[in-house]
Design brief:
The complex is a heterodimer. Chain A is of the alpha/beta class. Helix content of chain A is 36%, strand content 17%. Chain A contains 14 helices and 11 strands. Chain A has helices at residues 24-39, 59-62, 64-71, 88-101, 132-140, 144-159, 163-176, 191-195, 224-229, 273-285, 302-311, 320-325, 342-346, 350-366, and strands at residues 7-18, 49-52, 79-82, 107-114, 199-201, 204-205, 214-222, 236-242, 294-297, 379-386, 390-397. In chain A, a hairpin with a 2-residue loop joins strand 5 and strand 6. In chain A, helix 4 (88-101) crosses helix 14 and helix 7 crosses helix 11 (302-311). Chain B is mostly beta strands. Chain B contains no helices and 9 strands. In chain B, strands 1-9-8-5-6-7 form a 6-stranded mixed sheet, with no helix packed on it. In chain B, strand 8 and strand 9 form a beta hairpin. Classes of the chains: A alpha/beta, B mainly beta. The interface between A and B is large, with 44 and 44 residues.
Chain lengths: 398, 151
């Protein structure tokens, strides 16, 4: 079905995730060249570059759009650089999509890449007593996994989730990613191995929590007309993008905050922030969650994947464990989630990750996801959330 | 430690009191009824109430445990560990009934996850964050009501 505000994905490319220790630009350039080759175009056809920023690689990371435009050889085109933590990639996709839909360009490049340090993500250096991200480490020692663990414990109390459920998510995703050439970890794990890994943030063990990785991802997007005129008769389409923020009062503590909003004065919104992220894509496109047959969601922790099943509308609140246990979200099931292997197999490369989700969904809908193909994949949704209140979701149709 | 007690100084100014029954300090948007913690002083963030007065108020000293976790590995800087080797601590998110807000805090050293259960009653205490020379930096923490440190 043709929607007037669809844009085409004519190329997708990635650099394998890992701990390569090279400059982030090298990963991004490899991903761009792969996406350009996939699209069958020349870089000089690109009319706009949207780069997703990395905060850990100095100035070139803050101006990612220009950094990649320079690395590819200046062609004088406009650029933008976006930052929304884990949602940066979706913001870059949205910038490119809007430019195309506004008729201001035909073909755009979206790219994100990162080189990450080992261990916990930590705040920028310096004594910054007015920065909540610095203060949460200073006053509380609240790491990112601590927040994931609060949500996981809450889920256990509200819905009866068990540590075995979290472990089952990890085992599933590890199996999904076994043959993904871009995944960093391509190893099957038993439930016993996961359960034997050290406790990081109770109830989450090391193997329930994603690592941080180096990686790069890129897509080439164009207007539907341009795609058709250049050899892409029936491209995968972006039918909706969500880059929303919470609605006050946000009653769930968001990283890096010290408290939730108070709901003593104003009524709570109809949906929690996380549940409103994908919903915005459904409202934009008129496509409902019952039509989705593949999803890539942000399993920063294995427990968060269960939250996403509900928040993207695959089931009602409290039913995620049943969906998992019934095998609905495993490849071969009703609506496979994270066929790529998810963050469990990739580790997080912040500015690249939301774009990588879209690459995977593109390959799934084209039927090119060798070794992990979801049969009949035609409508896919990605979902993630960046700290400081950034929603990220992209809905793709075949 | 020297014989004279170190001077207690809040690790952050204006977020909590140091009296015998310590409490967090929030602000109250008088027109909407919303509370803010950390205290919002610039403007009410309740949409539509930008012109409302913000009044500093003590927040409830007790609340119910919304969720909790432990820090099995030493968090990175600027966190400061008070023990070597590092000793894990717990974090508690506590829901205050009147303010309808969930506030995160550490638990005092010695509270373990076996002491905690979602829904239990928690109380605010002021405890050491770090000691620098003669100065004890203190911060708010949550502990189960009636919990006492084992010596």
């Amino acid at each position: 079905m043709n929607r007037p505000d669809d844009v085409a994905i004519i190329g997708a490319g990635m650099h394998p995730w890992g701990k390569w220790g090279r400059n982030f630009v090298t990963y991004g350039v490899e991903a761009i060249r792969a996406a350009i080759a996939d699209a069958g175009i020349d870089y000089r056809d690109v009319q706009f570059v949207a780069g997703a920023d990395t905060m850990r690689n100095g100035y070139p990371g803050y101006v990612a759009g220009a950094t990649f435009a320079q690395a590819m050889g200046w062609t004088g085109i406009p650029v933008t650089s976006t930052y929304g933590a884990c949602a940066s990639g979706a913001m870059a996709i949205e910038a490119a999509r809007q430019r195309i839909l506004a008729g201001m360009c035909d073909v755009a490049l979206v790219v994100g890449a990162d080189t990450t340090p080992k261990g916990f993500l930590k705040p920028n250096a310096g004594e910054r007593g007015d920065d909540p991200d610095w203060l949460r480490f200073r006053l509380l020692g609240a790491t990112n996994p601590a927040y994931f663990a609060l949500y996981a414990r809450r889920r256990m109390d509200l819905y009866g989730a068990t540590e075995q459920d979290f472990t089952a998510v990890k085992v599933k995703n590890a199996r999904h990613g076994l043959e993904n050439p871009y995944a960093r970890y391509r190893k099957a794990f038993t439930a016993e191995e996961v359960a034997a890994s050290p406790m990081v943030a109770d109830p989450l063990r090391l193997m329930h929590i994603c690592a941080t990785s180096d990686g790069g991802a890129a897509i080439i997007v164009s207007s539907m007309e341009w795609a058709k005129a250049h050899g892409h008769a029936d491209p995968v389409r972006i039918s909706a993008v969500s880059t929303i923020t919470p609605t006050f009062p946000n009653t769930v503590i968001e990283m890096p905050n010290f408290a939730s909003d108070s709901s003593a004065g104003l009524p709570q919104p109809e949906r929690t922030f996380k549940a409103s992220i994908a919903n915005a894509c459904y409202e934009q496109s008129g496509i409902g969650p019952d039509e989705v047959n593949v999803a890539e969601v942000y399993d920063l922790s294995a427990a968060l994947e269960l939250d996403w099943y509900e928040d993207i509308g695959l089931c009602k609140p409290g039913e995620a464990e049943r969906l998992l246990r019934d095998g609905d979200t495993t490849i071969g099931g009703r609506v496979p989630v994270n066929p790529s292997g998810g963050l469990a197999c990739f580790g997080e490369a912040v500015p690249a990750q939301a774009i990588a989700q879209v690459c995977e969904l593109t390959w799934q809908i084209r039927g090119q996801a060798t070794g992990r193909q979801v049969e009949g994949a035609s409508v896919g949704i990605s979902a993630n959330q960046g700290l400081f209140g950034h929603g990220s979701s992209v809905l793709l149709t075949g | 430690m020297s014989e004279t007690a170190p001077t207690r100084v809040p690790a952050i100014e204006g977020w909590f009191s140091l009296d015998d029954e310590p409490h967090l300090i929030g602000t109250h948007c008088t027109d909407s009824g919303t509370y803010f913690f950390p205290p919002e002083t610039t403007m009410s963030r309740a949409p539509g109430f930008a012109d409302s007065k913000l009044t500093a108020v003590p927040l409830s000293r007790t609340g119910r445990l919304w969720s909790y976790t432990s820090a099995g590995y030493q968090p990175p800087e600027p966190f400061v560990s008070r023990s070597d080797p590092y000793e894990p601590f717990c974090l508690a998110a506590v829901e205050l009934a009147e303010e309808q807000i969930v506030v995160l805090g550490q638990c005092p050293q010695g509270v373990t996850t076996t002491d905690l259960a979602v829904g239990m009653e928690m109380e605010l205490v002021i405890d050491t964050l770090d000691i620098v020379g003669d100065t004890e930096l203190v911060v708010w923490k949550w502990q189960p009501v009636g919990w006492e440190k084992q010596s």
